[in-house]
Specification:
By secondary structure, the protein is of the alpha/beta class. It has helices at about 1-25, 35-50, 70-85, 135, 145-150, 190-210, 225-240, 310-315, 340-345, 350-355, 390-400, 405-420, 425-435, 440-455, 455-475, 475-490, 495-505, and strands spanning about 30-35, 55-60, 65-70, 90-95, 100-105, 110-115, 120, 140-145, 160-165, 185, 215, 245-250, 265-270, 290-295, 325, 360, 365-370.
Length: about 525
């Protein structure tokens, strides 16, 4: 009887979820550049994959340039879209003589397709605009995406920002009361094939799960106004480990060096370098399908057409399905707050919902890139206890089952379970947790077991770097040197061999040849 009730409850939950997903699909429109066949083809491809109705595709006769003027935005994007919203009955509007206002809307999500303009350059004078004081109030450049979020407000004021009513929300957008707010994301990248792959990967990851490691790269910034970024990243580490995502975390000023063995990367958050660097630049690097990758930088999305400029375009080219960024200077406090963004993704919200729950202001410079309907962790809501199929899933199930246990009990059970199942990823993560708490002896014990159970060379080398760093913290230089040297004899041609050599030189009291390795902790 109890089993029957459980199955019935699961069925009801799945039906409820399916109904909610369909409501979101029905409230999504796809906007493309009708002057570009590539844009039209991608729009049709996306709509077909997501089951979006044909009459929810909108072609606009607009510029093919990434940066446009405010006049071009008004005349070829904003005004035509407003007319289409009214003609197709998506908006209920009221014109009381003092201006038009939207009183109801059936559209909540907008997917902009590659070929649509990206940003609107500043204008010296604009009818009805009243520039305000300070570095924010007197600026009127914007991303096309963020400007479209307030399309239904009919605002003549273009300088400054608009407070985001959805910020810090925890409700699906279809249940949110503000009828004028649009969640705008773009399916865009340096190539059309990358955009297609982003769509396919997102849908596949929803079905089988986004499994892999998180790599979090702090910058150790302590200056007023900047420390906030490192706090976001620190919170992300806590969030990921709380749900059983193995997480490699570094909080030193340097970025992960080029040879660092960044395997199975499903989540990446970092800052603060102008152009993509580190392991991502290696020819052999590729994210796991469906990965989310974000690097904080003021101009991370200044263009999406160059696979080598900024961060957003290059990260997508390297296999990520999702990124967020800025087309002009955003100021840190007004960019996407990554701790909220990651938290909402982990709770099963879509990219569009998570991204806009995480940003304070609209009519500004942000872009959210990826399938707006993508739920990276949707599969977590459907996993039945005891039916895990791999090391990643086992860690997630263990973490969610044991979350309420005291820390010492949790870690003891975590180690016992991982040893019993030979789960190297869990043992490595436990070692990194111990390092973070400065329990270096316990860390080395876990790293040694992880090395024993790992099968892939790069995983073993990464744990060797982590273990050697712990031995050095314990001032046991000989143990570190013996470990490094034995590893170099075994895998002298490993891509991370230069990092092993640097640790050896450091332990021996000689200066490193390349930047100090960042083994996490």
């Amino acid at each position: 009887m109890k089993r029957y009730q459980s199955l019935l409850l699961l069925l009801l939950l799945l039906l409820s979820r399916a109904e909610a997903d369909q409501r979101l699909v029905d409230s999504t429109i796809v906007v493309y550049n009708s002057n570009l066949s590539e844009s039209a083809a991608l729009a049709k491809f996306y709509a077909q994959k997501r089951g979006i109705a044909r009459d929810h595709l909108v072609g606009l006769d607009c510029s093919s340039e990434e940066e446009i003027t405010r006049v071009q935005y008004d005349e070829t994007i904003a005004n035509p879209l407003r007319e289409i919203f009214k003609e197709r009955g998506w908006w209920t509007v009221r014109d009381a003589g003092d201006g038009i206002s939207v009183t109801g809307s059936s559209v909540r999500v907008v997917a902009l397709i590659k070929g649509m303009p990206l940003k609107i350059r500043a204008v010296a004078d604009y009818p009805g605009d009243k520039p305000g004081p300070g570095p924010i109030g007197n600026r009127n450049e914007a991303s096309v995406d963020s400007e479209l979020t307030v399309l239904g407000a009919y605002l003549p004021q273009i300088s400054g920002v608009v407070p985001n009513p959805y910020f810090q929300s925890f409700r699906p957008i279809t249940d949110f009361g503000n009828d004028t707010l649009l969640l705008v994301c773009r399916l865009d990248a340096p190539s059309a094939s990358t955009v297609q792959r982003m769509i396919v990967d997102a849908i596949a990851a929803e079905k089988k799960g986004l499994w892999g490691r998180a790599y979090v790269d702090g910058a150790h910034k302590v200056e007023p106004g900047l420390a906030l970024g490192d706090q976001w990243l620190s919170d992300i580490v806590r969030q990921c480990r709380a749900v059983g995502i193995p997480t490699v975390y570094d909080d030193t000023p340097e970025i992960f060096p080029d040879p660092f063995p960044m395997t199975d990367c499903a989540l990446y958050y970092g800052w603060y370098t102008e152009n993509m660097a580190g392991p991502f630049t290696r020819p052999d690097f590729h994210f796991v399908p469906g990965a989310v990758a974000v690097h904080i930088h003021s101009f991370s999305a200044r263009t999406l057409r160059d696979p080598n400029a900024g961060w957003v375009g290059p990260l997508l080219t390297k296999g990520a399905a999702v990124s967020v960024g800025n087309v002009y200077e955003p100021y840190l406090q007004l960019t996407t707050q990554l701790d909220i963004f990651n938290d909402r993704l982990l709770h099963g919200f879509t990219l569009a919902e998570s991204a806009y729950m995480a940003i304070r202001v609209l009519s500004w410079v942000s872009v959210m890139v990826g399938d707006p309907l993508y739920r990276p962790y949707a599969s977590w809501l459907q996993i039945e206890s005891g039916k895990t199929t791999g090391d990643w899933q086992a860690y997630h199930e263990f973490a969610t089952k044991n979350a309420a246990r005291p820390a010492n009990e949790y870690r003891a059970a975590m180690r016992e379970t991982a040893m019993h199942t030979h789960n190297a990823a869990v043992l490595e993560d436990l070692g990194l947790i111990e390092v973070q708490d400065e329990r270096f002896t316990a860390a080395t014990n876990n790293f040694q077991l992880a090395r024993l159970y790992y099968k892939k060379r790069d995983d073993i080398v990464r744990v060797v770097l982590e273990e050697a760093a712990a031995w050095l913290k314990l001032k046991k230089t000989k143990r570190a040197l013996d470990l490094i040297r034995s590893t170099l004899r075994t895998v002298p041609d490993a891509p991370a061999a230069p990092l092993l050599l640097d640790v050896e030189r450091q332990a021996a009291g000689r200066p490193p040849i390349s930047p100090t390795p960042k083994p996490g902790g």
